[in-house]
Amino acid sequence: MAYDLVTDAPEAAGLSSARLARLDRHLAERYIDPGRLPGALTLVHRRGRTVHLSVQGLADRERGKALAEDTLFRIYSMTKPLTSIAFMMLLEEGAVALDDPVSRFIPEWKDLGVYVAGVDPVFISRPPTRPMLMVDLLRHTSGLTYGFQSRSNIDAVYRAKEIGQPGSKGTLEGMIADLAALPLEFSPGEAWNYSVSTDVVGALVGRISGQPFERFLQDRILDPLGMSETSFQVSADRAARLAACYTPDRTGGLALSDDPAKSSYLAPPTFISGGGGLVSTAADYLKFTRMLLNRGELDGQRLIGPKTLALMTANHLPGGKDLASLSRSMFSEATNEGVGFGLGFAVTLDPARTLLPGSVGDFYWGGAAGTYFWVDPSEDLVVVFMTQLLGSPPALRRELRTMVYAAITD
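^ thats the sequence. predicted structure below, dont judge the formating
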């Protein structure tokens, strides 16, 4: 499938072609040619123009298949912003409020306790200092966790039960039931911990709207934006475009993690993960990020109001703190000081403290397989980056951000 994405030269949007070419060379020489990444796709959009598209390397090393503009990627946690937007659409309709207790719609969670001691199935817990609120789910201060954190007796149960794990054989309602039987890691609002919170948000979208979460997402976000390549399952007619997914091996090379010919994404999922279940293309995700850059509207389709989006991209961490001071997470897409968290996005509070170029108020997130995006309203800029490597090099996103900003000439 051919996409006519590039609409102008970089110079027309105040960017340097030579400096963007330097970014492409850097990706090739440092990551792709040495075999540290299978391939990479980079899109840069500024001032209403998509001015840079780079497609490098392979989508499938085992079959020698080149990466293409229309390659399908597992975007994992880049699903979270779509789920968060879906929830806020319901908020705009008056169906829910950010300070509603979660138990309003999940009454089986009314008596959740906070972990004190014990191992599954016998835990000692205490009452939380306050109930879990909707805002806690959106900003990851709920007290929930992820199994891959591997640091507590609680996340060990998440691993054993595959709670919140894309590709699991469970269901959203089954996840809610499993979590009802487990204590929280901390009292809501006391800390930030990357977690299955956004999967819970997806379940809530279903309960509040009265229709399956995936149907709401399709009808209210994907179809209006023309995101026809974004889904929780790869249909048979698109299967040849699904990239392979890799992990680093012990020699510094790549090991196949998910063979696209045998991937679980080829079958209908039972667990519809609002936290990490979508597959998409770079062109589709660009539509979503352009909508965000345009304050909630794209091509005449308004998904959300500008003031609601402004609320989402403000820092909601208690006390105005940053992630470095509030996080208990052993893993997050954001590790820098000077970064807050909104309602579905990390938000730059102080570029000087991040030690990276950027703007106050730029917002972003990424996925477990190295995918990444950011939106910078001050610079009228969107960048979408796609690859498929679980545990991608830590410096990669920092270098990408640095070199894109270095290409701005005005």
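The chain has a mean pLDDT of 95.
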